[in-house]
Amino acid sequence: MVDNRKVAVVGCGFVGSSSAFALMQSGLFSEMVLIDVDRARAEGEALDISHGSPFAAPMRIYAGDYRDAADAAMIVVTAGAAQKPGETRLDLVNKNVAIYRSIIPNIREVGFEGILLIVSNPVDVLTYAAMKMSGLPESRVIGSGTVLDTARLQEALGAHLGVDPRDVEAYIIGEHGDSELAVWSSADVAGVPLKDFCEMRGHFDHEQAERRIADEVRNAAYEIIKRKHATYYGIAMSVTRLCTAIMRDEKCVLPVSSLMVGEYGLSDICISMPTIVGRDGIECRVPISLDDDEFGELHRSAAALSDVIDRAGLR
Question: Are residues 250 and 278 in the same domain?
Fold first, then answer.
């Protein structure tokens, strides 16, 4: 039986421990089990995070194994090799698919029936791998996708326009990686089309600004890794946002990675598109408007991911 107040985090590196810390502060769960191949690392992180619980909502935090996660409402998988300077997310695929072959079958064997949230990179490929290996319904295997990329886009546009980024409605879609694309054609700020809002704020060179901002967003992880060797705070906040949307059944629209079944002419691939997310996981994709160039870019992104899935032997 699923315990709606319990979450498990698999992988206690920078991303896993930061996500666990953010989840402890969120108050969504009252129990959290940390799982790592290095049991001592999981124990240390559990102790360290639990010492902050008197300043947040009460929570039982401990290191455990996959049997402890069997009744969790959600399992967040962050385990995997870290991206190194100069390495793309797709370069990680062979190493992390091998790691997933040692993780996902264990989750399946304990009879897990909750929501499986995939965070490790390359997230679109590993979401597809987890769906194939877990035996869970496709609606309950979700990748963090371009949720963080979209937040980066909203933050960059907010700074560019001098406006609260929460009022920016714009998405990054496609691969969480080098072939991702910004959907400029349907972007708006507080309901005002983006180009109109830009001109209202004194910005008229739209194409140059769009290229610059899209490049900044696409390269953000590389810039952070170059300076501090890893990214983890932004994705930890994204994990908490996703868990909140699911556990509170918000039915909100988030650009998560999930299995496409014909939408936009794409099938048998996990890729990020705006999607309604609730307590049962994926409800449906939102048919956002794409212009011809964006539609072509999306299909090129999907083709790049499909090639990697094939080369990894996942089909």
Answer: yes
